[in-house]
């Protein structure tokens, strides 16, 4: 299995498709893929989430990383893998879920809100960390974390992220973001999702251009 950073490097934005219905999955997935998104997460508290994961995984094969979010029980990991999911994302840092995901050969990105949780998650095998909820923290908090976390640790803030709020987080050391309701909401048309996805992609590209001009 490739290092998780190989999925983040081209575009480190995770689409969180909470509430996605399987009937919507192909059109919404195509809109996101068309905007360059490479990681698609269907939270398990969505309608028939395993069906959506299976549809998306089959549609994009190895070209996109598809999996589940809001994974609370280690017993669900096998269901996710059987559906074709290859990543487990969590709102918390339950080491039992992390270990189950790694034993199944899946990537795992647990949610952490403190350095204690962050280090415990990494020790259990986490591939990256989800700073959640980001509204509870700040770029200054992330900057302090970066001073003590292993340098290669990817930290992705999740919660309240918009194209025009990414800059301070990136300056503080964020490796990317998980994006939920500002990207997808139940019933939102695929064209609208695509337009929002392109806005995030363009914001990320502007950040890269800015880095290059300041180098």
TrEMBL record:
Domain of life according to the entry: Bacteria
The entry's keywords: Carbohydrate metabolism, Lyase
Record GO terms (molecular function): lyase activity
SUPFAM superfamilies: Aldolase
Pathway annotation from the record: Carbohydrate acid metabolism
A Pfam family that the UniProt record links to this protein: Aldolase
Family listed: Belongs to the KHG/KDPG aldolase family.
Name under which the protein is recorded: 2-dehydro-3-deoxyphosphogalactonate aldolase
């Amino acid at each position: 299995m490739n290092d998780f950073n190989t999925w983040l490097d081209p575009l480190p934005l995770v689409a969180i498709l909470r509430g996605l219905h399987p009937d919507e999955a192909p059109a919404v997935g195509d809109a996101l893929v068309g905007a360059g998104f490479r990681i698609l997460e269907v939270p398990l508290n969505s309608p028939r989430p395993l069906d959506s994961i299976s549809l998306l995984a089959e549609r994009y094969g190895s070209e996109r990383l598809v999996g589940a979010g809001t994974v609370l029980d280690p017993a669900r990991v096998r269901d996710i893998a059987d559906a074709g999911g290859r990543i487990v994302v969590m709102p918390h840092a339950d080491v039992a879920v992390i270990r189950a995901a790694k034993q199944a050969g899946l990537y795992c990105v647990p949610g952490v809100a403190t350095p204690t949780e962050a280090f415990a998650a990494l020790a259990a095998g986490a591939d990256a960390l989800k700073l959640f909820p980001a509204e509870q923290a700040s770029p200054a908090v992330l900057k302090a974390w970066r001073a003590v976390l292993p340098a290669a640790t990817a930290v992705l803030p999740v919660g309240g992220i918009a194209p025009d709020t990414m800059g301070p987080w990136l300056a503080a050391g964020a490796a990317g973001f998980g994006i939920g309701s500002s990207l997808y909401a139940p019933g939102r048309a695929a064209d609208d999702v695509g337009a929002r996805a392109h806005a995030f992609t363009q914001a990320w590209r502007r950040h890269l251009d800015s880095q290059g001009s300041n180098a």
